[in-house]
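Last lecture ended with a question: if I hand you only a sequence, what can you say about the shape of the protein? Today we answer it with a concrete record. The protein is DUF4179 domain-containing protein. Below, first the input exactly as provided, then the predicted structure, then a couple of comments.
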Amino acid sequence: MSKKIKNTNINNTSVSELEEISIEELDLEMNEFYIDYEKIDSIKAPNDMKSWVRDAIDKAEVDINKHKRKTQIIASAASIAIVFSIGVYNPVLAHKVPFLEKILKTINDTLKIDEISYFIGLDKIAPKATLDESNKVKFIKPSEYKVNKLYDEKEELEEDVLEDKKAQAPNTEYLAVQFIHKMSNSIINPIDGRKYGSIKITPKTIELAINGLELIESYEDRKHLYNELNKWKNGKFENAVDVHNYVWYMLDGEIGKAISIKDEVVDNIVNTYFN
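The predicted structure:
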């Protein structure tokens, strides 16, 4: 028996007529086809296919769990590093845990974080944290409001005010801001060691500074400084650096930015007037 394929057209494609192939010739070709039975015999599979599949799934789950744990550890470490970095930059964020706040503050001072942030300009981008009148954390960016200087520059060379009787109430916006600036100068250390003008902090000068706030045209800055100076009124000066630098920006300061507090001076003020 034989079969013969004639010229035909499949899918519009011409197929040439194939030569007639006999069954005998086909059997011969099949017999010559080589099969490596040893290799076939070497292919083995468990009798229980479910067990095979289960083992594969279990192994995959172990690998997935290892990957998840590794990812979680990396994420946790990264989160801790970020939180720690933010805390060192803003120790006040840990104010509800005093011992932690103290540790973060110590690290901040030791590593001179504020000084570094000033030199690289980070303080202009990342806001500093402070506590509002409700003892809640709020973030303060440097003031963009600038006060105008409307008097002779020679007046800036006035002697330091070291006694209450020499302290006079400011009568212009610029003098009101400068009054606070000079008060804060008396209890801070500047980054570059330079500062000009100092007004002794007493209950009277604090009251004069608070009264002078009404001369500041910017409501936002007036409100912020009112909140911060009222802390001074209650004998709390932990915000001295932030207060100084806030008004320093308002005065468009270039030298003498505050970096730390003179603890011994503050202790003397507190012991003299607030105990």
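Comments.
1. The mean pLDDT is 78.
2. Residues 153 and 175 are 12 Å apart (CA to CA).
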